[in-house]
Fold:
Amino acid sequence: MTTGAGLEGDGTVGLGVPVTPTDASDDPSVETVASAGDPPPAEQKPVALVVDSTASLPVELAEESGVIVVPLHVVVDDEQFVEGVDITAQEVTDALRRRAPVTTSRPSPDAFARAYATAAERGAGSIVSVHPSAELSGTIGSARLAAGRAELPVHLVDSRAVGMAVGLAAARAARAGRHGGNAHDVVDVVRRECGASSTIFYVDSLDHLRRGGRIGAGAAFLSARLSIKPVLDLRKGAIVPVEKVRTATKALARIEDIVIVTDDGCEPVNVRPHELVVL
Structure:
């Protein structure tokens, strides 16, 4: 089971399962920012992939695929850490489980600028920078500011996804970038993989989603009073309710049922249970 520090804001632990397929209207959006410098023709060089640590990409897979991961800043018990540098995703999850105060913040433009500079130093001719849904996170805004002063052209992708759905798409796209694919080919892989994913999850409490403005105060209040464990989905990049159950055990069982039904009669799917920290 993999973990990730999730989207910026206050955190709450939930179980997420990326499955396929989903509606084509969930397809990611793409924008290209021209480089500030004048690099050699990008077609002659590999394409670099950049994500942030919300992509929940295992270290070994990131290294193997060559994906550059930009870490979030995490504050636990009023002490600040950099995810993946001086605190692990599992330690963040453990802190949330013991109800420690935890907040996260999106990477700064400077952090993305350093990642883009690293891509240039590694010999890339262009960059595809993949980000969690803009409906839930402002990360792509930081990346956009950094892209404006990058040495290489940067293709910014709003994945309309979160968690490992983003990470796996980036890892697969990176292989295309290393084996002769140009930036448009790589973006197509990201769009196809993210557009064919769905993230089904539940949270112990809706309070943090309320604080982040993702649900109304009334819904969060009623959920707490009735001990409801909502099963949630990500559609068109936004969180939507699927069902309401009364216990965590029933929520997990319902997620399993949904995944099995989704898989029934479809093409082979890649199911990855993992823990998310959602807002």
In short: Residues 83 and 219 are 31 Å apart (CA to CA). The two ends are 20 Å apart (CA to CA). Confidence is low (pLDDT under 50) at residues 1-25, 212-226. The longest helix spans residues 248-263.
